[in-house]
Structures are given as C-alpha cells and as structure tokens.
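step=encode ok
step=design start
structure_in=
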C-alpha cells in the first residue's frame, strides 16, 4: 500500500515537472487552449460590453471583461516563455504581464467559482454551463500558480499587478460595471464587493508566497 502511494506521488511530481510543463509542445497546447478560452470569454461579455459602451465612457470598457483579460495576460505570458525576449525593455514588459497573469488569474479564477457556488447556495438553478465555468476558472488559478517558478517577474511587477487589479475593483464597484452576478446575489452586492477586494489582496499574497517558493525574493 505504501509503495503504491509513493508511486502515485512520484507520478504526480513527474507530470508537473519542469520537463513536462516547459515542454514546447505542452506550452503550445496551453497557449491555444488559453487563447480560445480568452476569445470565448470576450464573446461571453458581449452584451455587457455593448451596454457599457452605450451608457459609460469608452475608457471603462477595459475594466469590464475581467476573466478574459486575466486569461489574455496568461496567454501572452506563455508566448514570453516560448520566445524569451532579448531586448531589456521587452523583457521588463513581459515580466509585468506575467505578474498580471498570476494575480488576475488567481483572483478571477477563484472569484468566478465562488460566485457560482454562492448563487447555488441561495437557491439558484444548477446548469451545465456552471460546471464548464468552474472547471475553466479553477484551471486559470492552478496554471498561474504552477508557472510562477518559470516566469521571470519579481516583486515590482507583482505590486504593479496588484495595483491594477485593485484599480479594476474600484472601477467595477464605483461605476457598477462588475461582472453580472447570479440573480440570487443581486441583493448582496455589498458583500460581494468586500469579498472581491479581499480576494485581490489574498491573490497578491498567494503570488508573493509563490515567488518565495520559487526563491526569487
């Protein structure tokens, strides 16, 4: 029994090893999965984007599609792994994007799952799309944590990412352009707002701890 457990742990460690995660074929697979998910995510926000454009300044559009933008950051981060830049300024840009990818992917991955489950707990209908969204958003958070050790960003980029994410929170709840909530949560926007800001801080801390684990702090 102990031997079987050891083999299981070793098989998991192999699957998540550098040789697998940094394999170019695997990176390209992740890239296309994330790119398609990003496109689908922006399409998912189509109605809210149109409504925001009609009723708010166009500059606020960038703050509307939270999860797809997080996925876009991660997709671009994979490109920087596939084609490491040689120019110093481009490398710095890549590090900021990677920091954004980590903080926003953790934050919105967990946030979306939490909102779906909260909607269920308040009596919302359970539909098959919910399970698809849960799986895809959990994957966002997991892949971000897995790739921190391969990204090159440091504390400065992580702080920039946290600042951007907090700004996004402020815009969402000041102008009420936050992602559409399950109907059952519409009377609890104040609680959702508090949870959202708290989750941004926790996502920053998670990224910081991951950086420490990667020994870049």
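sequence_out=
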């Amino acid at each position: 029994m102990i031997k079987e457990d050891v083999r299981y742990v070793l098989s998991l460690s192999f699957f998540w090893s550098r040789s697998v995660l940094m394999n170019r074929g695997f990176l390209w697979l992740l890239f296309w999965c994330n790119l398609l998910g990003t496109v689908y995510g922006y399409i998912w926000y189509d109605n809210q984007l149109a409504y925001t454009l009609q009723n708010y300044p166009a500059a606020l559009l960038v703050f509307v599609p939270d999860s797809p933008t997080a996925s876009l950051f991660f997709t671009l981060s994979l490109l920087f792994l596939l084609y490491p830049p040689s120019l110093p300024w481009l490398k710095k840009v890549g590090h900021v994007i990677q920091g954004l990818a980590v903080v926003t992917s953790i934050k919105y991955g967990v946030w979306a799952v939490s909102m779906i489950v909260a909607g269920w707990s308040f009596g919302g209908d359970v539909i098959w799309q919910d399970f698809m969204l849960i799986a895809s958003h959990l994957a966002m958070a997991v892949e971000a944590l897995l790739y921190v050790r391969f990204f090159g960003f440091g504390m400065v980029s992580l702080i920039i990412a946290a600042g951007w994410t907090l700004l996004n929170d402020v815009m969402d709840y000041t102008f009420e352009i936050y992602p559409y909530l399950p109907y059952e949560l519409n009377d609890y926007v104040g609680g959702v707002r508090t949870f959202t800001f708290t989750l941004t801080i926790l996502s920053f801390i998670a990224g910081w701890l991951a950086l420490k684990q990667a020994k870049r702090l």
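step=design ok
step=annotate ok -> Residues 8-12 have pLDDT under 50 and may be disordered.
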